[in-house]
Amino acid sequence: MNKITTTIKRQWLREIAAGRKRIEYREIKPYWTRKLKDAEAPFLLRLINGMQSRAPEVTVVVKRVRKNTRSGNFELHIGRVVETRYWDRTRGRPTKR
């Protein structure tokens, strides 16, 4: 299964880890067009909040990708959360270092 890694803001990482956010949006730009062209659904999407070695991250399965030209976004339909690292899912915040 393919894996794509990208960064994400903390509030959206919190929502995805809790299972409340089911669609992640990315702008239709050449970068994302290239990335998503090679990935066949389902694939893994690794979302990292920050660039530190212990930055909170969530890995999810993307079930479907939809190109919404009206809004100018790719819609990545999230399935289940496969893994969380450095993130406390019960408290909804990063783990202590």
- How many structurally independent domains? 1
Helix content: 10-25%
CA-atom Rg in angstroms? 13 Å
Q: Give helix and strand order, one letter per element, not per position.
A: EHEHEEEEE
What is the percentage of strand-forming residues?
Answer: over 45%
Distance between the termini: 31 Å
The count of helical stretches stands at 2
Concise account of the structure shown:
This protein is an alpha+beta fold and 97 residues long. The protein is built from 2 helices and 7 strands.
Describe what you observe in this structure.
With 97 residues, this protein is an alpha+beta fold. It has one domain. The protein has helices spanning 10-18, 30-38, and strands spanning 3-7, 23-27, 43-48, 57-68, 73-85, 87-88, 93-94.
Layout of helices and strands, plus pairs?
Blueprint: E1 3-7, H1 10-18, E2 23-27, H2 30-38, E3 43-48, E4 57-68, E5 73-85, E6 87-88, E7 93-94
Parallel strand pairs: 1-3
Antiparallel strand pairs: 2-5, 3-4, 4-5, 6-7
Annotation keywords:
alpha+beta; single chain; 97 residues; 7 strands; two-stranded antiparallel ribbon; 19% helix; 5-stranded mixed β-sheet; 2 helices
